Amino acid sequence: MKRNKLLETQLQELLPEALRNNELLQPFLDAISNSFDAFEKDIELSEKAFRTTEEEYGQINAQLKNEIKIKEASIVQLKGAVAEISNTQLSENNNELLNIASYLKTQVSLRIEAEQLLKDQKTFYEQILNQIPADIAIINQYHRYLFVNPTAISNPEVREWIIGRTDEDFHRYRGKPVENSIKRRQHFDEVIKSGKKQEWEEKLITEDGREEYHLRILHPVYNSLGEFEIMIIYGFNITERKKIEEKVKLNESRYRSIFDNSQALICTHDLNGLILEVNRSAVKSLGYETNELVGTYLFDLLPEDKKDAFKESYLDVIKKEGKAEGIMVTLSKQNKKLYLLYQNYLVNNDKEAPYVIGFSQDITARIEAERALKKSEEKYRNIIANMNLGLVEVNPQEEIIYANNSFCKMSGYSQEELIGKNATRLLLSETTTQLVADIIKRRKEGQADANELRVKNKKGELKWWLISGAPSFDEEGKFKGSIGIHLDITAHKELEEQLRKAKADAEFSAKAKEIFLANMSHEIRTPMNGIMGISGLLLKTQLDKQQKLYLDTIRNAANNLLIILNDVLDFSKIESGNVKLEYIAFDLKTLLGNAAQIVKYKAEEKNVAIQLHYDNNIADALFGDPYRLNQVLMNLLSNAIKFTDEGMVEMDCQLQETTDNKQQILFSVKDTGIGMSPGFLHHLFDKFSQEDESITRKFGGTGLGMSITQQLVEIMGGIIHVRSKKSVGTNISFSLSFPVAKREDIEATVQRPVNVNMLDGKSILHVEDNEMNRLLTGTILSHYGAQVTEAEDGYKAIEILEAQKQQFDLILMDIHMPGKDGLETARYIRKHIDNTIPIIALTANAFAQESEKCIAAGMNDFIAKPFEEEKLVGLIASWLVKTNEIPGKIHRKTRSAAPVRKASVKSGKKHFDIEVMKAYFPDDIPALHELMKICEKELTKSMAAIAVSVRDKNLPELKQQAHKLKGSALMSGMEILSQLAYELEQLTLFEDKKITDMEQAVKTEIQYLLNVLNEHQQTS
pLDDT by residue (tens digit) across 176-204? Predict the structure, then answer.
């Protein structure tokens, strides 16, 4: 092995080679070599250690030197701090830290004592805050709680928990919405920004759901440098205060309302009369605005002659006695004197300065009236003594105690002859004794009235006096007699008698006119029925061309004659107010087209063109009376063609407006005919008017057409206008309003062809004295399968019916027959033979009165001659054939076949037309029933009200109830009841017998209608 260099050198120098190479010594030498190597390493390590230690000691020395410097600087700073804190200067040479440590120990001890004192003070103040009955909390700038007293949070665990937490944490902890905490933070920020405390009211909901109100106050606290340190929050539960405030506010509102709305004039003023407050009544009476009166002295509102005594008579009195009352004269803004009756009171309490509240009433009108009364008393005393009306005062025994000059002249007695005499025995006849007794009884009951009495004057002459009397009572309410004013109405009564006679003559004349027209209608229509009927039957036979021409001429002539007759009758109906309008669905366009088609041939004969202009915006179906509208248009078209020799006739129909499911439509007929002069235009609608006699001779006509046209237009709710120029032409227009209908409404009224077998097997008794009419009617009915038995008068009809050899389904009854007429025969049949068989009247009298007579006699229906074939058959079918089997347009009946009670009605009316009510609710049965129930209720009320009025003999109330019943009955389709009510309404005197009979008639009719309404509700 390789030995240590130092050992190898010494072996070379000191040990012989033999020994060096001796093998036995080799291990020993190797061990020594290893020892040398180890020693050298130890030395190397030792040296290295010394070197490291030397470096470390150098670093430590440097650190120690640096620490010495730092400590020396610290000692200097400590000395400065001690000197600054204790105001004691330490010696510069005294570097002993022990002295400084001793001083600091002393200061720390003092600080500990101060902190303990501060802690004790904090505990003391917290104890105080904990006892205060208000919510108190302290938070820092981070909104975290530093302190909360038990009033704010009663639970000590929660109170301890909340320290260091925010208000939002607290709301979440309690499971409450954080809206309040957000508002609190907003107020916190505002306080920090403004530096001023802030307060607000906060509404809270307690755990049991109650509402509480709390007043919250934020008060910021700043240090000596002006920096924010803490926020003190305190508050109070003001729930009870809020409730009291609400009550106070409500009471104030009530008192203010009473103050402002009182009819009395109310004001307050101070002890010097300075107005503090006034209410609306005072402002209104005085004519000022509120701000003009408040701040004004009462003194300034007084007239000059009242100012001097104001202080002594008012202000001094109320200060001394606490109240004042009387009449105060003031001036309004318009300088008008006002008299105020006042009661004023002094209000004196500890809370406010004393003031006066005054209540007054404006009695200016009363004062002025009293003055006017006093001023005119003498004047009226003289007037009463000399007036044209007789004035008498009597005592309770009817003895005259005063009579004026006029009464003396009226009676013929002097005052000496009258005073002390019994007025009743002196002036009235025995026939009026009971009436006078009733009057005296009413006087004693306190009633005033007026009566017309027959009296006898001193000369024995009978006179009519209107006596208006009133009772007189003393201050205790005891009856002390009557005062009566008398007017001689003898001349008026004589005039009344003349008017009554004139009225009777006029009624007789009107009746004669009615009878004449009825007879004329009968005499013309009876042969016309035969002419038109026979000619119609002949047209169904085989005819040559000439025969057909002759028959057409006969029918045209008959139709023209019938038109003239209808004009006269229509005019009479309109004049008497008996025109009734239909209310059915119709197609206006078709109606106009048919009208134009009818006059087309006449126009073509004269080479006059016809043009029809129709507005397609008009509804396909309308509700109204197509027959009367057609009559108006046909009249206008016929006149236009009649008076036009060349040119054209235009019929125009335009939609004006649509509102509330109604259409306003303008109709006009324009021609290029002869025109009219301006002077005649004013008379165009007069009765029997034509421009000159040549017109009548050339064109014919009655002169009634335009009058009828105008009145029909007005009945339908329109106004007719005419523009015309001689030799240029005429334009006649009118505007009407129609409710909009549906196409299916029209389909329900469309006339369908009559089935020729629809009367198969029906047995009909025809009672008619005219052989031709029996032939005509029998032929027509036979054509439809009916078996017709004829009777020439009423006796024969009764004989046939009583023989009972044949069962009849229906009777056709002529009215005007020799011997027993149709009305008598019908009454006899109903009473003695059959009260169920349908009876249809055949009458040539087209007046409504005639049809009413038929119904009253017990007939079921009627048809006027000359009748159209299909109308007669359709009417018969409506009574004999099931509804679903009737192919033609049939007017359904709702009357019972039993005899109908007679009614005192002046024109043809129906007891109850159900179609009138159905028109209100066409397809709504429940609504119709509801309307009927309301109608029943109103009828019962009206019956009771009329009975009370009759019992009390209250004619004005009776007339008012009758007027109300008249309108409602007419609107409900109860025409007879409406007419009875109308007759009641026209009464001018209370005649017991007459009114009792009329009341009974109304009562009977209402009871009948109530039964009918009930039946309809049960069966429909």
Answer: 777 778 888 888 888 888 888 888 888 88
At 919, list the tokens: 């028109």
pLDDT value at residue 864: 80
**Residues paired with residue 766 on neighbouring β-strands, in sequence order:** 790, 812
Tell me, yes or no, if the two domains 387-488 and 909-1020 fold the same way: no
What pLDDT does 567 receive?
A: 60
CA R_g for the chain: 61
pLDDT reported for residue 721: 93
Q: Where are the beta strands (DSSP E) in 223-259?
A: 228-237
1018: its two tokens: 């049960």
Q: Are the C-beta atoms of residues 268 and 356 closer than 8 Å to each other?
A: yes
Structurally, what CATH architecture does the domain formed by 262-369 represent? 2-Layer Sandwich (3.30)
765-792 in b/e form (b: 16+ CB < 10 A) is bbbbbbeebbbbbbebbeebebbbbbbb
Lookup: tokens for 354: 């004393």
Q: pLDDT of 376-423, one tens digit each? A: 666 656 666 556 788 889 999 989 999 888 889 889 999 899 999 998
* pLDDT digit string, tens, across residues 116-128: 777 776 676 667 7
Cα four-point dihedral sign 487, 491, 497, 498: negative
Comparing 48 with 416, the larger pLDDT belongs to 416
Tokens found for residue 976: 């007879």
Longest dimension (CA), the chain: 219
Region of 104 please: left (phi>0), alpha (psi -120 to 50) or beta: alpha
Q: How far apart are CA 322 and CA 344, in angstroms?
A: 8
- Residue 375 is predicted with a pLDDT of 73
Q: Identify the DSSP state of 829.
A: I
Look at the block and give the residue holding tokens 């007339």. 959
Between CA 144 and CA 824 the distance in angstroms is: 114
pTM of the model: 0.34
d(CA 547, CA 555): 12
* Lowest-pLDDT choice from 234-243, 734-743, 821-830: 234-243
- C-beta separation of 279 from 267 below 8 A: yes
Say how far apart CA 859 and CA 65 lie, in whole Å. 153
CATH of domain 909-1020: 1.20.120.160
The residue type found at 281 is: S
- CATH number, domain 387-488: 3.30.450.20
Indicate the CATH number for domain 583-747.
3.30.565.10
**DSSP state, 923?**
T
Q: What torsion, rounded to 10 degrees, do the Cα atoms 632, 633, 634, 635 define? A: 50
User: Would you place residue 922 in the very low, low, confident or very high pLDDT band (cuts 50, 70, 90)?
Assistant: low
How far is 208 from 649, CA to CA, in rounded Å? 91
Q: Mean pLDDT over all residues of the chain? A: 80
For residue 36, CA distances in Å to 19, 47, 56 come to 19, 16, 30
pLDDT tens per residue across span 779-808: 788 878 899 999 999 999 999 998 877 789
At residue 547 the predicted structure's pLDDT band, cuts being 50, 70 and 90, is: confident
Specify the long-range contacts of residues 511-517, CB closer than 8 Å, at least 24 apart: 513/572, 514/572, 514/847, 514/849, 517/568, 517/569, 517/572, 517/847
Buried b (16+ CB within 10 A) or exposed e, 483-519: bbbbbbbeeebeeeeeeeeeeeeeeeeeeeebeebbe
- Which residue ranges make up each domain of the chain? 5-60, 132-243, 262-369, 387-488, 583-747, 909-1020
Residue type at position 602: K
φ/ψ region of 530 (left if φ > 0, alpha if ψ in -120 to 50, else beta) reads alpha
Distance CA 108, CA 489 (A): 132
Q: Report the CATH fold assignment for 132-243.
A: Beta-Lactamase (3.30.450)
Cα 72–chain centre separation: 105
DSSP-derived 3-state class of residue 354: coil
Residues near 683 by beta carbon (within 8 Å), at least 6 away in sequence: 689
